[in-house]
Amino acid sequence: MSLVSGDKLSQKFRDQVVLDAVSFTVTDDDRIGLVGRNGTGKTTLLEILAGLSEADSGEVTQSRGCVIDIFEQDKTDILDMDLFAYVESVRADLLTIRGKMSELEEHLERAPHDSAALSQLGNLHTRFEHLGGFTF
């Protein structure tokens, strides 16, 4: 499934072309590293994808539910947590649901015939899946 794609994205700053008709598709099973020298358009591309700026030309298409955000690398010194935990924290709702699911799973290991707990776990599982918890 395509998460985000860019079609012929171009961006110029003054007389310098930073992006020149860049096209790509990112699917849900892709793993990507964006590397290059300073000034080659990495941040510009990410800002366009995150909706923080617009390309001079071209089009970005995102699937429903796909969220793209940027965390500036020079801000990491102000965090009281590692970067992965910070990224996770943007979906505190999912973390809360997952925590409740874990508690119920542990309870059900001790009391496998607790139908109320099993029902509650099923409801949380459905909600977690609906909110994209398994793909987050």
Report what the structure shows.
It contains four helices and three strands; from the N terminus they run ββαβααα. The longest helix is centred in the last third of the chain and has 19 residues, at 92-110. The relative contact order is 0.13. Helix 3 (92-110) runs antiparallel to helix 4 (115-130). A hairpin with a 2-residue loop joins strand 1 (2-13) and strand 2. The two termini are 14 Å apart. It has helices at 42-49, 83-89, 92-110, 115-130, and strands at residues 2-13, 16-27, 57-62. The protein is of the alpha+beta class. The chain has a three-stranded antiparallel sheet with strand order 2-1-3, covered by helices on one side.
Which tags fit this structure?
single chain, 136 residues, 3-stranded antiparallel beta sheet, 4 helices, 3 strands, 22% strand, elongated
